[in-house]
Specification:
single chain; alpha+beta; 9-stranded mixed sheet; two-stranded antiparallel sheet
Length: about 200
């Protein structure tokens, strides 16, 4: 099993509101120009306007507004984490073993959504891009944190399978789903938690 590592969360960069601002600015100046050029009729003013719109167009092209979501995500992928089940270990793509069944610290898994996951209905549903999920490894003398990219329900299932593998390997795990404490992807009541601890 493997996970893609990102250099940071990309949720704000990928939201359509933030990506569409330069494009709206470009269209706004274009429309103003369409109405003002016949009124002004001066060739120097037209040349200045064309130059301004061209500069704005270049900014739009090279900003994140001109890139697809997959281009932005792929540009920020920095490596992989590999999980082996028997014997258990978690290593990076260089070969460094980050965790094995002798690990004495804890692992915190934070699930925030997979790419294209939609939560809620109506005019303002939450749309996730799968870039805000985290694995934090806290040992006695070190701490490592990884942003994990999850694509689709397969990625979500792998993420929660990791929780199960860690627990079965005797590693202390804290799991959170969108800020709420969960156990193997489920929100449990007190009695269910006590039953799970047995």
């Amino acid at each position: 099993m493997e996970f893609d590592i990102l250099n940071r969360s990309l949720e704000t960069e990928l939201t359509h509101e933030n990506r569409s601002k330069p494009l709206i600015l470009f269209l706004f100046f274009g429309l103003i120009g369409v109405f003002l050029i016949p009124i002004i009729g001066n060739s120097d003013s037209i040349l200045a306007f064309v130059l301004i719109v061209t500069v704005i167009g270049i900014v739009v092209k090279f900003s994140s507004a001109g890139k697809s979501e997959s281009e932005i995500i792929n540009k920020n992928l920095i490596g992989k984490l590999y999980v082996n089940i028997d014997p258990f270990y978690l290593k990076d793509d260089i070969g460094n073993v980050l965790l094995d069944n002798t690990f004495k610290g804890k692992v915190i898994l934070k699930y925030e959504g997979y790419n294209t996951e939609i939560e809620g209905w109506g005019r303002n549903p939450n749309i996730y891009f799968g870039t805000k999920n985290r694995i934090l490894i806290k040992g006695s003398n070190f701490e490592r944190s990884f942003f994990i990219y999850l694509e689709g329900t397969v990625g979500k299932n792998k993420f929660f399978k990791l929780s199960e593998i860690l627990i079965n390997s005797g590693i202390k795990v804290e799991e959170y789903t969108r800020g709420e404490r969960t156990y193997l992807s489920k929100k449990l009541n007190y009695t269910e938690i006590q039953e799970l601890k047995k």
